[in-house]
Amino acid sequence: MLNYTHEWVNLLIRWLHITSGIAWIGASFYFNWLENHLERGKTDRSGVGGTLWAIHGGGFYFLKKYEVAPPELPESLHWFKWEAYWTWISGFALLVVAYYLNARTMMIDPELAALSQTTAIVIAITSIFGAWFVYDGLARSSLERYPRILGLLLFVLFVLLSWGLSHCFNGRSAYIHVGAAIGTCMVGNVFRIIIPAQRALVDAMVQKKPRDAALGRKALMRSRHNNYMTLPLLFIMISNHFPHTYGHALNWLILAGISAVGIMVRYYFNIRHLQRSSVWLIALCSIIMIGIALMSAPARVESISDFSQAATSHKIPFHQVQGIILRRCAVCHAQIPTQAGFISPPLGVRLETEAHIRMHINDISRVAIQTRIMPPGNLTGMTEEERRMLTLWIEQQRGR
Ligand code: HEC
User: Fold this and answer.
1) How confident is the model at residue 303 (pLDDT cuts 50, 70, 90)?
2) Are 312 and 261 in the same domain?
3) Best of 245, 347, 386, 393 for a ligand 1 pocket test (most atoms within 8 Å of beta carbon)
4) Which of 104, 322, 361, 378 is the least crowded, having the fewest Cβ atoms under 10 Å away?
């Protein structure tokens, strides 16, 4: 019953997380697009510096942007902050529900680091909040005046974080924690810098005092950082569907490459309206992506099969393979799993009967041989000999 409740809590929080995340990033993309597409003429007498016509959902919209601020504060002014806060709150709750409550299975890989559950959770939470303090400290320092150097330094630091975490946790949770760290910096920017700067702007208007230009500049810089962090963050959030990325031995490098591409794509869209020729950026991104794809391609399995010429000569009987899978996989991958914490076969993958095993032969090869993300943290203690046996059997089925 407890497990079943856990499953539903997970579902509800995940749903909330995705919904508020879309609302947040959607609004942020929209305003960014708006800013880049405003028709800017001369600022008129009421202070309007740009306008834009749009059609959406069967209606015409006419938007105006004030260069500084309208002469009077409107009665109702919409703020965009709860989308960001709820995304963070639900994201953190999801980390607890999906990872920390089951750290043994979801985070720890004893072959990488034999951490206790508590140590793993402490490292995880420290890395998330630590990232914000380091980031915020650097962004407040004198490096503020050198945005490109600051950007590069931050990128290097995030790669370092990802390298470090990939040596503590299994790939999947290393990735998700880099994502959590990036997301925390983004929400921290909204909570600590952007919203306070906007509040100061409104207060200055109400009190008819001059506004503090430095605050506005800082908020703009943080909002730019958020803009560039978005695509890497979104990749990380979907990465757990792609074990060939997080399950690779150099998973941190793959993450760095894909993030660099995300940042460049964002940059391309930011400067595109300036009509500067920047197609080379897209070419560069394509080259990097192809490079990553080649690098993360599964190793040819044949090399493993040389391990014993003798072994290749005899056919592996199915019952031997089934025995391995029942012992090492089916405790979770069964209609009614016997592994504590599981109430249904993960992702619907059942590996109980011959038909199931044959149906999933390619998936088994991908997750248990090429990337070795299964069994998670080798919880069921699958031996090298068993993996070899499985490899040989799969090769024999494929008629090599
Ligand atoms: C401790 C429980 C557990 C054990 C043991 C286990 N798995 Fe999994 N498996 C999971 C979980 C959890 C997921 C879902 C991961 C996710 O949500 O992406 C999963 C997902 C999968 C998937 C789908 C992933 C994909 O990308 O297609 C396959 C295939 C799979 N496991 C095969 C295996 C094989 C083969 C073994 C044995 C060598 C095994 N698993 C052992 C828990 C387990």
Assistant:
1) very low
2) no
3) 347
4) 361
Tokens 């390619």 found at: 362
Tens of pLDDT along 212-236?
Answer: 888 888 999 999 999 999 999 999 9
- Which of 277, 297, 317 represents a domain boundary (last residue)? 297
Domain end residue (candidates: 275, 297, 319):
297
Q: Which helix (DSSP H) or strand (DSSP E) does residue 119 occupy?
A: helix 117-140
Distance 320 CA to ligand 1 centre (A): 20
Q: Whose structure tokens read 């591409």? A: 261
Where in the sequence is the domain holding 177, given as residue range(s)?
101-297
Identify the weakest region by mean pLDDT among 22-26, 125-129, 243-247, 328-332: 243-247
Are the C-beta atoms of residues 228 and 263 closer than 8 Å to each other? Answer: yes
* Residues flanking ligand 1, CB < 6 Å: 105, 240, 243, 328-329, 331-333, 339, 346-347, 349, 360, 363-364, 367-368, 374-376, 379-380, 382
Domain count, the chain: 2
For residue 327, which of 272, 389, 269 has the smallest C-alpha distance?
Answer: 389
Q: Within a domain: residue 79?
A: no
Per-residue pLDDT of 126-168, as tens digits, reads: 999 999 999 999 999 999 999 999 999 999 999 999 999 999 9
**Cα torsion 310, 314, 318, 323: sign:** negative
Is residue 12 in some structural domain? no
What is the rounded distance in angstroms from the CA atom of residue 101 to the CA atom of residue 119?
A: 13
pTM: 0.83
Q: Are residues 248 and 370 in the same domain?
A: no
